[in-house]
Amino acid sequence: MKNIKIIKNRSDIGAGTRGADLGIDAMEIAAINMNNDFFNHIPFVDVKTHNETIYNKVNSSSAKRIKFVEEQCQRVSDAVKETLLNNETPIVLSGDHSSALGSISGIKAAMPKSRLGVIWIDAHADLNSPYTTPSGNIHGMPLAAALHQDNTEMQNNRPNDETISYWNKLKNLGTNFPKFEPEDLIFFGVRDTEEAEDVLIKRLNIKNYTVPEVRFRGISTCIKEAIERLWNCDKFYITFDVDSLDCDFVSKGTGTPVSFGFSPDEAKQLITGFLRTEKVVCLEVSEVNPLLDNKGNKMAETAFGVLDYTLKQKT
Known about the structure:
Structural class: alpha/beta
Strand order of the largest sheet: 2-1-3-8-7-4-5-6
Protein name: Arginase
Helix content: 25-40%
Pathway: Nitrogen metabolism; urea cycle; L-ornithine and urea from L-arginine: step 1/1
Cofactor: Mn(2+)
Shape: globular
Strand content: 5-15%
CATH superfamily: Ureohydrolase domain
Organism: Seonamhaeicola maritimus
Distance between the termini: 5 Å
Mean pLDDT: 96
EC number: 3.5.3.1
Oligomer: single chain
CATH class: Alpha Beta
């Protein structure tokens, strides 16, 4: 990956707990404490946030702060699009994972004719919609929006008209159609899902490489197979949500920690394996929350370690 540009998106309004807005700063502190000048020699852009809206009254329990999340995703989309059109590679560092919709939309806006493959390294499927979400937190919805999947067959909420209007805007960011095909989406490490998501995963036949499968079959074998599945894609997008890591082994410094996840070394191998294809046009790291860290700044240190290692393999 050459001509890298960091996009710093300190937004956490799509999450259920506060603190992910400090994740980027925590990673920068981790770099300083490691005597690593990573953040000093790579150009960056700061994306304006709506974090002040956490004090506003929530008008939609099925999609909290959706108006501002839509605006935030549009900002991320614009930043990613501009970076790509300038022949730079965006490395998106985000607070909560709703930003992934912005990143994917920005790629499609810059490369509308390219077939996009999505590598989703996460403990969660993020396939809920305002019609199915049990929490109303939009960081659990970016893939549903990107795929235009309302999943009303599993509906348990009645979103109001305003929510539906902004949900449709979210789905149409960057392009007015799905950003990629379900067959071009591959999960790694997803292990904490709701019934509505399970139904959608089965219906769309989305491949999920679970942690036990990766360890039983071998990480190199799974990466090779995943690349073969995505080989007809022109470009790849990788998103690394740190809750894909084992919270008991690493730390609980993320909004929705889940046990039995990947080790940091496995995350490094996964990301590096896909970077070697030379098809990756955007890499995202999200959901570091230092306020929840039970081991000092461990999650930020780990996330930065993964990022620094993988980029050094390709720059």
